[in-house]
Each structure stands twice: as structure tokens, then as C-alpha cells.
Amino acid sequence: MAQRKTSRPSKTRKKAPSAAPRDVAGNVAYALEWLERRGTKKNRDGMARYGIVADKVFGVSMSTMQSLARELGRDHKLSEALWKTGWYEARMLASLVGEPDRVTPAQMERWARSFDNWAVCDTATFVLWDRTPHAWGKVREWSGRKEEFVKRAAFAMLASLTVHDKKAPDEPYLAGLKLVEREAVDDRNFVKKAVNWALRSIGKRSRALNKASIDVARRLAESPDAAPRWVGKTALRELTSPSVQRRVKER
């Protein structure tokens, strides 16, 4: 009697149906749950050592947040909704998923007024705001503000523009050096470090800006006041270094 052939199960698995698309509220809930699962005390302690203080924090590393941002993609409405949660990581994520061409001056002002640490401030300026058409205006406007992190945002954005605004001529950066020299007297830690950052960054952009930045740094280094003297001396060491001099000569 002939043997009956038995059918074998296929080795190819059917794909699971893709998850239904989430709306903004669903994405916020998903992001907060995702972040909470990955938060650790070790990361929270590490943040505190670097002066990152926030009322609501899970303790998630930047590289981990970036992987979630890639999954979510750019989404202006999601960015705004994440910001409103008040969680440190959600606010970092808000900048990572924001759409530069949809950012408004009013939104920038609203976020800046609620900055409570340098990491959220710097991420907003470096990954989102310096790519908007409002960046230079906010540098000028915020450079004279009283709030520590709003003023820091002005100079962090000025430093960021030296990297990301490839087409800008030297003129706006020369104007930025005047703001640096004017505000270097502010001895608050997070302000003076951003002023120093902007000065060093401008001085590495071109030969002409290097010379102008060194002139500013030398004047500040001779100040009788501690804050401008520190800004000037630390910038001067870097801007006159052989590595920076080689870099600007090649441009």
C-alpha cells in the first residue's frame, strides 16, 4: 500500500499585523511608557553630577532617547505635546522630533521661559532652533534677558549657528562678538560658560573671525572682573592653539 505523504508546516512565518497608527495622544503615552521602562537610578545620579536638575525625570541616556526619536519621526504636534508633559526626557525628545520650519517665535519664547536646566536648553538650540529663520533674532533679543537659561539660550544658539548655518557671512558673527563682549560680565555659571562657548565657536569659523575673536578674548582677559577674565583667558588658549590656527588657515 502506498504511503500517504504528510504535509509539513511551512518554515516561513506570517508577518504579524502592523500596529495601528497612533494619534498624538497615543504617541505621547507610548513615549512616556517607553522612557519610564528604560529609566535608571544610575542615569539619574549621573545627570545630577553634571548639573542636570529637573523635577520630573526618568533617568534615560541621550543615545537611548535618540533611538526613540528616530522611531517616532519628525512631528510638530507631537513635539508640542511632549513638551507639555513636563518630563525632562519628554522635553529633550520634543526638540529631537520637532520640525524647524513649523517652529514659531511664540513657541520659542514659551519653551525658553520654562527652561530649568542646561541640557534641555542646549538641545533645543542645537538640534531644532538654530535651523529656524528666527534664530538670529532670538540671539539678539535673548542676549540681554535676565533669566539665566534664556540668556544661556541666546549664546548656545549663537555657538550652534557657527556649526549649522553654513551660508551666513561673517557680519552676523561679528555682531555676535559685540554681544559676547557686552555680556561676559554676567558671572552666573551657565551664562558665562555659554558666552565662552560662543566666543570659541565664532573664532574657529574663519581666519577673519578668528582674529576678531582673539581681539575680544584679549580685552576680556585683561578685565579686573573675574567672569570676563575667565571667559577671555579660556577662549584665548584655544583660539591661539596650533590646532585651531591650522584649521582656520585651511578655510
Textual characterization of the structure:
This protein has 251 residues and is an all-alpha fold. It has two domains: 22-98, no CATH class; 118-251. The protein contains 14 helices and no strands. The chain has helices at 24-38, 41-49, 62-72, 76-84, 88-97, 105-113, 118-127, 135-142, 148-164, 170-183, 189-202, 207-221, 226-239, 242-249. The longest helix has 17 residues, at 148-164. The radius of gyration is 24 Å and the shape is globular. The model is unreliable at 1-20 (pLDDT under 50).
Taking pLDDT < 50 over at least 5 consecutive residues as the criterion, the unreliable ranges are 1-20
Biggest sheet record: none
Average residue pLDDT: 92
Computed over alpha carbons, the radius of gyration is 24 Å
The global form is globular
Number of helices: 14
Q: Helix/strand-derived class? A: mainly alpha
Q: Report the helical percentage.
A: 55-70%
How many discrete structural domains?
Answer: 2
Q: How large a portion of the residues is in β-strands, by DSSP E?
A: under 5%
**What gap, in angstroms, lies between the N and C termini?**
87 Å
State the main characteristics.
251 residues; mainly alpha; 2 domains; 14 helices; disordered N terminus
Produce a short descriptive summary:
This protein is mainly alpha-helical and 251 residues long. The protein is built from 14 helices and no strands.
Secondary structure layout:
Elements: H1 24-38, H2 41-49, H3 62-72, H4 76-84, H5 88-97, H6 105-113, H7 118-127, H8 135-142, H9 148-164, H10 170-183, H11 189-202, H12 207-221, H13 226-239, H14 242-249
Helix pairs in contact: 1-3, 1-4, 3-5, 4-5, 5-7, 7-9, 8-9, 9-11, 10-11, 10-12, 11-13, 12-13
